[in-house]
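Reopening: TldD/PmbA family protein still failing for me.
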Amino acid sequence: MRPQEIVERTLAAATHLRGCVVLVQESSEAVLRWANSTMTTNGHTTSGRVTVIALVAVDGGTAAGVVSTAVTITDPARLEDLVRAAEASARDAGPAEDAMDLPSPTDTDASWDDDATETSIGVFGAFAQGLAEVLAGPQRQYGFASHELTTTWLGTSAGVRRRWVQPTGSVELNAKTPDLSGSAWVGASTADFADVDVVDLAAQAARRLEWGERKVELPAGKYETLLPPSAVSDLMIYLAWSMDGRPAHEGRSALSGPDGTRVGERLGALPLTLTCDPAAPGMEYAPFLSTTRSGDAISVFDNGAPVGRVDWVREGVVSELGWSRAEAAEFGTAFTPPGDNLLLTGGSDASLEEMVGRTERGLLLTCLWYIRLVDPATLLLTGLTRDGVYLVEGGEIVGEVDHNFRFNHSPLDVLRQATEAGATERTLPREWKDWFTRAAMPPVRVPEFTMSSVSLGR
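Support: Ran it again with your exact input. Result attached.
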């Protein structure tokens, strides 16, 4: 059965329910992998998933039950089984606090009847030519490139019919010295690999290996630190994930203030704006909500609702928090669901290299790793630096610190303390890449970034 037929047959089998949502996803992924300057893997895979969300009238309100299957469905009776299973799950769950009528359709989706869009190994054509040049170079090269196209069809008993094709691409490259004593990481995110210059990425990694030819020793402590866009993205993503309205309103998060939430509070002197925008060029995501779970700021009852740009922080001031429609009605706010990209803008047009040139003494990081929450009240995070911490003196990089650091810092304090932000550019989060790829960030200068201890791992 075509995905559209699966949606319609499932909804027809659920007419006895208070409501129903059907999500059909078909994913197509192409990958390349290389190690020790030799190609090791290339391949193309496809997968599919059908999710049924049953909305059931129960004592005390409406319950929601969710059932998913990755099995290819050819028998309509299987769809009836999914509806019954979702209905049973809803009855077991009991009335939902986020229950709302499903959103009504707002427009007609002209692409609804289209088939799934597939990627192929061919997406790496120009990239592979550059990679062959890189693999023939003097450094040992390790890396992974992936491109995925996921087509989603969303249908609801309220009449919503929406389709979206989401491209997701990334490349990570580790260059190592011949004796494996030095390592440098670079990465990039992309929608189609047309904008990825792997030769330039490898040149960036080679330059970092050159910086590492001289080793320096530094103790733990507070350092003026230049955070490159990748490191900034990992910190800001955690902040965006923490901006749910209900925990802030109830005093359970770092966005809780002494008299309510911190909406309206100025964080820092720089006019930085933290945004999710489904129309951001090259980083677009679905302009409607599709979700298989409920939680703070998100609800299965909101499936099909239109979504737009949200400024979580606007020109240095906390501007919005996340709210589902039910929460918005409860707290008298606006429906503000989380987004699937993140942009930090409002800095200068300075490059990272120019910011290094203005640094009297400080550290330049490569990326962050193993980030974990320490204190939800302040959003204090801990984690490790990885693949290169470099000492800057007199505007020049003079060597690589011979170890990594464990850091303790809050992304809120990054915004509060930042004294300079450069030009925003698309980047790849190192820590959160598997969950969040579409990010655009500037390099940021933090005068006293806390390196709490020395880590001996590379």
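The longest helix spans residues 76-93. If you still see a failure, please send the error message rather than a screenshot.
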